[in-house]
Automatic annotation (TrEMBL):
GO terms for cellular component: cytoplasm. GO terms for molecular function: acyl-CoA dehydrogenase activity; flavin adenine dinucleotide binding. This is Acyl-CoA dehydrogenase 6. GO terms for biological process: fatty acid beta-oxidation using acyl-CoA dehydrogenase. It comes from Caenorhabditis japonica. Residues 254-400 form the Acyl-CoA dehydrogenase/oxidase C-terminal domain. Belongs to the acyl-CoA dehydrogenase family.
């Protein structure tokens, strides 16, 4: 592989951020978790990434069990259900380190379970639901999915059409969900459904429901052929008269849209955190390549244009990291961080495109080869501007928040 993996630096002095900055939100327990996770990734995951990427799948139950034993899914979950009981900064510390996996697919898959399908369940779920779904998900014994988007409703969550009609003590679910990460291997899904008809606001007629995926009437498509994130199994889910107890509704019926918006905020922040290390690695490896690549009697790194391009990328990445840490600090202090989250998510999406494109350009033909990690990053991280709310939705959120502040 042209884009060679290099030894990771000590977590006590993380790439791209001074220890003083990191200690603003992390303590010794955060660093201990990162070091343990780094060791697991180096020994058990990265040696297999090439094979898993080629096969278009990876053994989620095997990986999740190792992650569960380490506490990756436990970060800010209740101790009484196997969680660590820490604040959201532990989730961010884990997300940052999970970025050291040699592809984007596995970090995305893991973060679905830790910060997308389980936050509402952990905060609002009944004792029964948390025993049935949360506890084994924290331990890594179950694999979960988040099922919100539909073929016609991506960023516009209010437009979903999947219904859950009451029948005695059950819900009868009909509809389909699209772009379901972990969908081929998942044991259960946190599904957003319409539990009442149009007489209510589209923001008040939805509920989140825990749905076991081995039930009669649940069908999974063959894995979708994606541009990137190759080893992550992504499917379409179909629900045909699927019967689920009403007791599987998370929290209050009709509050699903609100719960999901909160989950989106966490998802967006961990997405930013996951992107920091691989983008920093793209820059660092490109600097090393440019230093060694001769051209016209000098090296690529002697060219002022290359120097300035890489300097600008470094500055923008550091600004994004700082924005994330500001949002996390505010989130941990109970502030509304919707605008800061949208800003962070917008920035990482745009920056992922810029870093991978400009670094690939410096690598030239070597970067265009599929056996080069820079080309994988180019494919994998393009999704950052689309998933968890596209760039345009992030700008809408920022604008709406600005308008409220002016009123």
């Amino acid at each position: 592989m042209a884009f060679l993996a290099r030894k990771a630096p000590s977590l006590a002095a993380p790439i791209g951020a001074s220890p003083a900055v990191k200690h603003m939100i992390y303590d010794d327990q955060h660093f201990a978790m990162q070091n343990s996770l780094a060791k697991l990734i180096k020994e058990k995951i990265n040696p297999n990434v090439e094979q898993w990427e080629k096969s278009g799948n990876y053994p989620a139950h095997y990986v999740f069990k190792m992650m569960g034993q380490l506490g990756v899914f436990a970060a800010n979950k209740p101790p009484e259900f196997g969680g660590l009981g820490r604040d959201f900064s532990m989730s961010i510390a884990i997300a940052e380190q999970i970025g050291s996996v040699d592809c984007g697919a596995i970090p995305m898959s893991v973060m679905v379970q830790s910060d997308m399908s389980t936050p509402a369940l952990a905060q609002f779920g009944s004792q029964f639901l948390r025993d049935r779904f949360l506890r084994p998900s924290i331990s890594g014994d179950l694999v979960s999915s988040i099922a919100v988007s539909e073929p016609h409703a991506g960023s516009d969550v209010s437009a979903i059409r999947t219904t859950a009609r009451k029948s005695g003590s059950d819900l009868i679910i009909n509809g389909s969900k699209m772009w379901i990460t972990n969908g081929e291997q998942a044991d259960w899904a946190c599904v957003l459904v319409n539990t009442s008809s149009g007489e209510k606001s589209l923001h008040k007629n939805k509920s989140l429901v825990c749905v076991p995926l081995n039930l009669k009437g649940v069908h999974r498509s063959t894995p979708l052929d994606k541009m990137g994130m190759k080893s992550s199994d992504t499917v379409q889910l179909f629900f045909e008269d699927v019967r689920v107890p009403i007791s599987h509704i998370i929290g209050e019926e009709g509050r699903g849209f609100t719960y999901q918006m909160a989950q989106f905020n966490d998802e967006r922040l961990v997405t930013v955190a996951v992107g920091l290390l691989p983008l920093q690695r793209c820059i660092n490896e490109t600097i090393q390549y440019a230093r060694e690549r001769p051209i016209f009697g000098k090296t690529l790194l002697d060219q002022q244009y290359v120097q300035f391009r890489l300097a600008e990328l470094e500055a923008e990445l550091e600004a994004t990291r700082s924005l994330l840490y500001r949002a996390v600090l505010a989130r941990c202090q109970g502030e509304d961080v919707s605008m800061l989250t949208a800003m962070s998510k917008l920035k990482i999406g745009r920056l992922a495109r810029k870093v991978t494109d400009q670094c690939l350009q410096i690598w030239g033909g070597a970067g265009y080869l599929n056996n080069n990690r820079i080309s994988r990053a180019f494919r994998d991280f393009r999704i950052f501007s689309i998933g968890a709310g596209c760039d345009e939705v992030m700008m809408q959120i920022i604008h709406k928040t600005q308008q409220k502040r002016r009123c």
